[in-house]
Amino acid sequence: MPLVxxxxxxxxxxxxxxSHISEINCxxxxxxNHSVDVLVIAEAMPVLKELKFCTGSYLVVxxxxxxxxxxxxxxxxxxxxxxxxxxxxxTASSITDDGLQVCIQRHFYGIDEEERQPQEFSIRLxxxxxxxxxxxxxxxxxxxxx
Length: 146
What we know:
Layout: E1 3-7, H1 11-21, E2 25-28, E3 38-41, E4 58-62, H2 69-72, E5 78-82, E6 90-95, E7 99-104, E8 108-109, E9 115-116, E10 119-124, H3 131-144
Parallel strand pairs: 1-2, 1-3, 3-4, 4-5
Antiparallel strand pairs: 6-7, 7-10, 8-9
Helix pairs in contact: 1-3
């Protein structure tokens, strides 16, 4: 079964949002002793300096957060960005009280080596779920083709 790791102070909220959308296992990464298929990086954290990224792994990175890009510059992993800016690969085109319209703005190849075309899809927001956390979860799921 695939495994998603999450780094950031809001990791537990992203994991909660992830569990409402998918049954893929998702864990918080607090040290370098984890091996995951996809790593969601919500913000720069000290543990990022310890992590080893290899070719073939996927990093789903919050492009709105400061200080992440320099830590990942030498990575051999595939980088997929998410955020609320026009430069993010995956963003939200609209947000309502109960939903999020997710937009894949650029094509990329997922973990299954299938191409993800630009498209939009809707995700329902659960009670007390922030759009940012749901967008992080949706971006990771897009890598899996879900």
